Fold this sequence. Notes:
Helices cover 40% and strands 15% of the residues. By secondary structure, it is an alpha/beta fold. Helix 1 (18-29) crosses helix 7. It is globular, with a radius of gyration of 18 Å. The relative contact order is 0.14.
Amino acid sequence: MMNRWIGKVAVVTGSSVGIGLAISKALASHDIKVVGLARRIDKLHEAAAEIGKDKFFPIECDVTNEEDILKVFKWIDEKFGRLDILVNNAGVLSCTSIIDSKTEEYRKLIDTNLIAPAIFAREAVKSMKKHNACGHVINISSIAGLYLESITIPLGMYGPSKYGLRALGTELRHEIIAAKLNIKITNISPGVVITDMIRSIRNIVHITDDCALKDVDIAEAVIYALGTPEKVEIPEITIIPHGTGTSSNQEHN
């Protein structure tokens, strides 16, 4: 089913490292042109060298700056004349409690984790509608946006922002159906994934590799969602590590 995406164009936010980079590699392996966005242009150039400059197109972009976002879509329209896939992956994490955080910290998380995906989705849908594309918008959320009650460490506005991202996907789906557009919306909510963002908080919470997911696991979920038949839409994918706490060589009857 991935054959229908060959030669199509995807935008991946936060694509220089971690989950975003893994998603970019996975998309490119299916001959999808990837426009990779991040603030660190040096890392994006490294990704382009690894993936292929004719497959991965790096653009420096601060997702909290609407002007940067609009320039990206203008560039895509001029370069490719179309957009088919949007992966809202960029996000930030805070381990400072809401009651101890400054207002600026609230705004940073909401701007990055919720407002930016809304702007990207708005502009992507506009582009897909303009070119009559069969599109797909994928939001990389978090299990914290589904079951925050089970997470007892402080996450500040991270959890609320991810609940909002899930609601954003639902609202977009309603609006797309009402507008009779051929665009799918999928929300992917992984548990802990070993990334630079998670490594930065290992001094706060003990996380071992055997109880966490890998970035490629999330990339495979993106491919799974994209590979569904045209008349099938998966609104939500929840991913958790399998067999946590069990021996890797344990035999199962």
